[in-house]
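Crash report, auto-generated. Payload:
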Amino acid sequence: MTSDATRPLAGVRIIEISSFVAVPLAGMTLAQLGAEVIRVDPVGGAADYHRWPVTDAGDSIYWAGLNKGKRSVAVDVRSEEGQRLIARLISDSGVLITNVAGRQWHSYDTLVALRPDLIHVEVSGRADGGTGVDYTVNAGLGFPLVTGPAGLDVPVNHVLPAWDVACGIYAALAVTAALRHRDATGAGQRISIPLENVALATAGNLSFLTEVMVNGTPRERIGNSIFGQYGQQFASGDGVAFMVVALTGRHFRDLTELTGTAKAVAALGETIGADFTDEGDRYRHRDALTGLFTVWFTSHTADEVAAALSTTSILWERYRSFADVVTDAKVTENPLFTTLDQPRIGEYLAPGLPLSIDGAYPKAVAAPALGDHTADVLRTILGLGDEELAGLFESGTVA
Amino acid sequence: MTSDATRPLAGVRIIEISSFVAVPLAGMTLAQLGAEVIRVDPVGGAADYHRWPVTDAGDSIYWAGLNKGKRSVAVDVRSEEGQRLIARLISDSGVLITNVAGRQWHSYDTLVALRPDLIHVEVSGRADGGTGVDYTVNAGLGFPLVTGPAGLDVPVNHVLPAWDVACGIYAALAVTAALRHRDATGAGQRISIPLENVALATAGNLSFLTEVMVNGTPRERIGNSIFGQYGQQFASGDGVAFMVVALTGRHFRDLTELTGTAKAVAALGETIGADFTDEGDRYRHRDALTGLFTVWFTSHTADEVAAALSTTSILWERYRSFADVVTDAKVTENPLFTTLDQPRIGEYLAPGLPLSIDGAYPKAVAAPALGDHTADVLRTILGLGDEELAGLFESGTVA
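Recovered output after restart:
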């Protein structure tokens, strides 16, 4: 292990057999923490190798985004010889992360016979063994029925695959905790992470399930309001949308002062018997409050609204499009982003790990092309000679 | 450290000074991995202590959900004596996680003088030092403008605070990686995680930002369709909504066979020159395909649809409400959930850590009441005597 604090997993080698979001994100995160991550794919690529968005030439921007800083090995995974090579790589490396379940040749039981202290992390769809992806898991959970404007009567899916993202970071955490345990005890681990369980645990931890169990009252569809707090969307006079959040008494007082409604809010409270120092009452009477505040927002331009909000403690943000964001200082002047020259895709601002260690963000590193490291990995890790390698390439066992 | 694989962080003690979602989730996750996590709160509780949902008696179901398995110490954080006690606790424990930024007395610089190998993790709003919460960060990022039915012209916030969740798991990962690094090198770390950077990095990694930079084309609002794939919402004849996803050629063939549209789809492909073995073409022509498939869904009941889909490789799920979920086998027969007797709240099914280690899920443990462990922690960790303790309680320095 090096003493570089930004690479706490230096010296660890991890084999990844994956596709789509969760496990690729886990592998990339572990690579950003200093591990050597080798993604092993079928010759021609896994099911995500051409995933949209793609460039005009057809190269996957998506794939490049989730495989930054990894090494790539391409193997004919249907051939026994290919399977044996990968099993040797896993056995030598000691850590496998995968979402390709149900393959006997890289199951925990098969591999632990080769490497007794193996750390084996498998992401699956559902705890009961069923298949599932972010979009089906989310549909089955409840969120789409309470997302979107009040009164809407169709489900609204999230666009961010939030469960995949959470699952990927949990997987990186599981590997890191298992490494620490193995360092101390010499023992490996078999870890299973059903995507649906990540979603269910989160919905339970955040009370979406528990409030039904305890109070019998499920969450309702409340548009862009924040449940249990005062948080609301407003539009400025020139039609720009803002999200405004008052979590604390101070935030709320600032909001009434800014909008010149302190007296009106006090009078409203008296009339209806509400105590607006209480977050529950601010939530219960949010529509009346929003009615009072709206006048100020619609009588100012977006720039005036932004300038005025900036002088207060209120939490707020202007709604922005992705196109707005990429030219905003939050990207262009953010040390999280560095210019990446990504082969096949081009030059762009790419994020590194979203946490700084001793003041530095681990930087984005380009993604490989499929098979970029096949020869080097087989030569240096498995010790194959030139002749043997040439034979494997010729027979199509590797590429 | 014990040799219990399900408690890889056993023997680690962590002090948490937090409120709301991200850092409480980080602390709870670390506790579920075996660490002793002591949440230190102001007397009377932090800003999240009464957060909704609450029981009829006013106790926060929300707070209980995110602080399971922690110990609780209540201290007058405005008093110098209280601050000194907490600083001693952190110094003795060696790890602090917090989202209470800008307090000199628990800043990295102050504390590292007391504990040179300190691991100090601070979650903030924005990388530029500005404040931010999940709902404002999300508004500023782009997702709300592409969420919801095509044609809608208002932003749609997510209901799940996805950035808080991701940030919390990243924080748990950062602590765990730093522990491994400290074990090996003896060095601590100062880690900073701006919530907005978690969101920006994720939007970059998943190409929402990169496709604008590279192709100049931002994502559009496409309702419940999955971008770049064939994934769509359908309604059965009796009005139940289903999410149906065909990621691979096999999934798509199964869908055309199930719906009896194989010939019609082939004819459509010929007519418009589309190659439906290509995921891009399945996405481009999704509306035409959905039109063909819809007939089958609307001419079957929900139960018939579910039974038929079950016999195929297609990824699918029935949209469910939170109320549906809590009585479903995915909760009631899932080893992730165990019956928790939570003081003040009642008995309910609570999720543990959403990953199993060697076949076992680390189980949910009840959340403390505020100050449950104040006396014990001060006595056993700081070595305070009965008299000193009594004085601190009497003066209101602790509670």
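Post-recovery validation: DSSP finds 17 helices and twelve strands in chain A.
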